Amino acid sequence: MNPSAVEILAAILFVVAVFHTFFVKTLRDLALRYPEATLGHNIFHLLGEVEIVFGFWAGVLVVGFALLKSGKEAVRYVDGLNFTEAYFVFVVMSVAGTRPIIDFASRMIGAMARILPMSNAQAFYLMALVLGPLLGSFITEPAAMTVTALILRERFMKAGSSDSLKYATLAILFTNVSIGGVLTSFAAPPVLMVATVWQWDFRHMMVHFGWKAAIAVLVNAALATGIFRKEIATASAENAESPRAFAPFWMSIVHLLFLGLIVATLHYVPFFLFVFLFFLGFTTVTREYQDDLNLKSSLLVAFFLGGLVVLGGLQSWWLAPLIRNLKALPLFLGTAVLTAFTDNAALTFLGAQIPNVTEEFKYALVAGAVAGGGLTVIANAPNPAGFAILSESFGAAGISPGRLFKAALIPVGVAMLCLWLLPGL
To answer: What mean pLDDT value characterizes the chain?
Structure first.
């Protein structure tokens, strides 16, 4: 292991960025000590936005890269990275967050909730945290995160909701989306990184991962529903005072067609951007049925993921040897922990580059990566999307990464137990 000066700098800045995410609330509190519209207020407020963190430190890395080597080398490094996921998340968040898509998902969840022998609010909450994340296996995890977070925000995350309910809901949402995408081989980023290399298809995912993940998703959602059953009913009632009309059904179908085209072409940036431009045109001519597109949040999340790609691209010198030397159970546990501090797709990508690994190694690596995906905002690529959507629901202080981590320990523990202890079919 002989890292270059740039790799050492990248590792240091990566650690700094990780610590930065845990102190965003402190930075926002510092911003409040300065009068609004002053330089101090604006700087601390900017640095207190979690979506800025990795993009900011990636910028510092690029400057350092240029100083240590040359500007051309820095540009060549960035140009050689793959930002497809960041582009895709921007587009799919923008489309999935529209009123016709949310209305369609709400109708579907509501229809399933009416079958359950419990109160309307409790059944809807349960089904939102089950169906929403499992849809991630088909419409991709970023889309599932966006849709489910918006539905939960509208029904359960406003007035009347305690911090305990909010953090439990957020932690379960992150965890369930991370494991809910493993029913197929194309929707979860950590699975996508290995599916082609290891020739994992739909049957393989369902037999070895999918049914276990579905059980964990249901258990997590049921636990929260049982613990907060009274508060869920109260929060839902208070947030439902001013119901709005659903968008026309045909609008939802058109939006779903656009979303389907984008998902089907997720590997081809020019094509899904081309489809997205048509979508923007369509929303313009049908604006009376639309809410304002939330392009700002989508761009910020894409910026976050882009920064993670830039910083993460130079971490393999220490991550790869660490992963390679672990046995199955330590690898499973270690990967789940490491996922909290680096994107789980980065871990599985590095694991896929190691030749001649056993089936036990492959399973432990991916299972640990997806199980730990709810621990922090950087643990799974769609998490920043949910973080951005739900942040305002936590008041001026925003989401505390430390409290999120603590709240996620139980649902992550459930996911780990199901993925490791349940036998393969």
So the answer is: 90
Query: Which tokens hold the place of 335?
Result: 């990967």
Total-model pTM: 0.86
Q: Which amino acid is at 193?
A: M
From the CB of residue 75, how many other CB atoms can be counted at a distance below 10 Å?
Answer: 13
- Contact assessment for residue 386 and residue 145, using Cβ atoms and an 8 Å cutoff: yes
Return the amino acid letter for 124: F
At 2-24, the pLDDT tens digits run 899 999 999 999 899 988 988 88
The yes-or-no verdict on residue 278 having pLDDT over 70 is: yes
Of 220, 229, 222, 221, whose CA–CA distance to 410 is shortest? 220
For residues 328 and 368, the answer to whether their CB atoms sit within 8 Å is no
Q: Return left, alpha or beta for 356; rule: phi > 0 is left, psi -120 to 50 is alpha, else beta.
A: left
Write phi, then psi, for 390 (nearest 5 degrees).
Answer: -95, -5
Q: Tokens 């369609």 appear where?
A: 104
Buried b (16+ CB within 10 A) or exposed e, 189-202: bbbbbbbeebebee
